[in-house]
Each structure stands twice: as structure tokens, then as C-alpha cells.
């Protein structure tokens, strides 16, 4: 099976990250999954946004958690706007793409999974992010696919793996070695990794046998993957 290509925040070089055009462009380019970051507004709407405020992308120093969805939607830049997760999910189920839903804020975990459940899309959604987010998802949805995001030199304890039952071990790429990949495979876990952008590091990940690569440079990765097949 080919190493999965996961587009980080959609196509962030061709479009504004975490927007509908960015997601659709990544799928059109051949991404197996599109990684998106999810946050929760004051009125409980799940939206696509990585940062806690609108400053970097939308030039407004407003925390997402202090704004209603209607207020966020007024922040338009040309054809780009902050989309609701449900809007993206509707587009997803109309096609054959998949998502990696990154949940850095635990409060967004259950509302996100409820939308996935409503669209019967657990088979094409992988949950990643904050450990408490993953715990909340696993507690209510045994069918959920989980990628255990990891940024520690020590491997996760057996108790944590038993609790979360992840499909993927998802560390930062600098933590990966061939031995770690082999150990995870021995535990029947797939290995995904983030965020790999240089061709040399992409090649290293492919040589190690990782199962999925999260990248901002999808076209480069797809080209390397094709060369190796």
C-alpha cells in the first residue's frame, strides 16, 4: 500500500490555509486525506482555524472563543472566509476524500465528532490533536479512527495505547527512526508523521516505511511517492 499523502491545512501555498478552496485544491491534487485544524466559537460552532485568534490570517486580534460564527463569517478576503466544519463535511461526503481533524482545543472534540457521526463519516475521518480531545472522542465513539499525536522522545505507554486504541502513531518527524517505525508496526499501529516539507526528509520517511506523511508541499510528496513505486 502506498504511503498516504496528507495535505497540511489543505493547499496552503495556493490558497489561504484551512479554507474551502484550500481543501478542495488538495483533494483535486490527489491528497488521500486533508488535515484541517478545528476550533470552537463562542456560540458552539466548529470552524476551521489553526490559531487561537484571527490576527495572523484575518488581521483581527479577536480570540475565536470570544466570537460568534456570524462575526467570523464577516471576515472575508476575496473568496476566502472562515468555514464551518459542517460545510466542509458536506463537501467531503459528496465526493470520496478524507480528513484528518486536528483538535488542539478539547472543547471542540465532541461537537466535531457529533458532526462526523451525523454524516456517517467515521470511515473517512481521522482524529488527531490534544490528548484530552482524543480521550473525549474515544470515550463516546468506539468506531472513531484516532491518530495519537506525539511530541515526546519517549514512546507512549502501553496503558495509553490501550485506552485510546489509535490507528496511527503520529509523531513529529524529527522523532522518527526506522526502529520506532518497526516497533509501532509490531504493535499493529500505522505511523503518520508531521510536518515534512523538504524532499530529503520526505525521502527519508518513505525509506523508513512510514504509512502517512503530513506535508505543506503535497505535489512534491506525490512526485517522490510516484518515483518510488
UniProtKB/TrEMBL annotation:
<feature type="domain" description="GP-PDE">
    <location>
        <begin position="3"/>
        <end position="225"/>
    </location>
</feature>
<dbReference type="GO" id="GO:0006629">
    <property type="term" value="P:lipid metabolic process"/>
</dbReference>
<dbReference type="Pfam" id="PF03009">
    <property type="entry name" value="GDPD"/>
</dbReference>
<protein>
    <submittedName>
        <fullName>Glycerophosphodiester phosphodiesterase</fullName>
    </submittedName>
</protein>
<dbReference type="GO" id="GO:0008081">
    <property type="term" value="F:phosphoric diester hydrolase activity"/>
</dbReference>
<dbReference type="InterPro" id="IPR030395">
    <property type="entry name" value="GP_PDE_dom"/>
</dbReference>
<dbReference type="InterPro" id="IPR017946">
    <property type="entry name" value="PLC-like_Pdiesterase_TIM-brl"/>
</dbReference>
